[in-house]
Amino acid sequence: MTLVVVTHAEKPELWDRMPERFAGIVPEYNLHGDVNDGYWDRLFADFPEYQFVLYDDVREEVAGAGRSLPRSWDGTAEDLGPGLDDSIARAFADREAGRPLGGLCALGIEVAEDYQRQGFSGLLLGAMREVARRAGLETVLVPVRPTWKDRYPLVPTERYAAWRRADGAPFDPWIRTQVRAGGTIAGASERSSRITGTVAEWERWTGLAYPEDGDYVFPQGLATLRIEHARDLGSYWEPAVWITHPVTPEATSPRP
User: Fold this and answer.
1) What is the H or E stretch that residue 37 is in?
2) How far is the C-alpha of 15 from the C-alpha of 69, rounded, in Å?
3) Is 14 helix (H, G, I), strand (E, B) or coil?
């Protein structure tokens, strides 16, 4: 197996395979973010060099994918901001204003089902550092969606991010992978990504009925969903844990 990092700018035709390759990898509701929906198509038109796949050129198959945007950052935890939505909007505003860039913000890292449980998430982190290195950026900023947070949706994200196993490693598997890859936990946010929809949409996305108003725990949700029937509205804030990764001058992942 030979793996190479290929950006959308280099081989845009690989993205034709993405809907089939990554169907079901993330929860359905996560595909309907309020801010992400407005910018999705522009990612590939305006920032093709920051959208990449990890390509198996022996099998001629996409093993994993990463989406990212360059954004301003002054190096402080405070300037990381609330998370994904803010970073997306900031990246496009930075581009229009010509502001100096401070880091590469990860929007998503996904491993195809037939390549899972083989350590490919760590390789994709390395690939994202490589994309940042090529762009002359010194840090990768990751608003992490913690893998096991859905088991503890009522626990504040900052507390959850601080949980440790008996060996001292982070409790959450995805946070643990990031820390082992050289990342540093820099903060937590309860309002990283806003997702709203009608009650019927949320029932379809989650497979649950919501008979009355109130806050609901739902499958794969990291926090609670607020249902308001009079407004025909379901609203949810996805939390995140900020992790920063330094980018070394040398290559940090497979190269084409």
Assistant:
1) helix 34-46
2) 17
3) helix
Q: Mapping DSSP to helix (H, G, I), strand (E, B) and coil, where does residue 209 land?
A: coil
Please give the Cα distance from 195 to 92 (Å, whole number): 20
Closest C-alpha among 133, 151, 158, 146 to residue 68: 133
Domain annotation for the chain: domains and CATH numbers: 3-190+240-246 (3.40.630.30)
Residues 121-138 have pLDDT tens digits of: 888 898 899 999 999 999
pLDDT of 252 above 50 = no
Pairing state between β 103-111 and 139-144: parallel
The CA distance from 110 to 19, in Å, is: 12
Q: How far is Cα 61 from Cα 83, in angstroms, rounded to an integer?
A: 31
**pTM strictly above 0.85:** yes
Closest CA to 130 of 61, 50, 18, 46: 50
- Give the pLDDT score at 115: 85
Question: For 148-158, what is each residue's pLDDT tens digit?
Answer: 999 999 999 99
Q: Residue 221 burial by CB count (10 A; 0-12/13-18/19+): exposed, middle or buried? A: buried
Instruction: Kindly tell me the number of DSSP H helices and DSSP E strands found in the chain.
Output: 7, 9
Instruction: State which H helix or E strand residue 96 sits in.
Output: helix 84-97
Which residues, at least 6 apart from 233, have a Cβ–Cβ distance to it below 8 Å? 196, 197, 198, 199, 227
Q: Which tokens go with 125? A: 């982190």
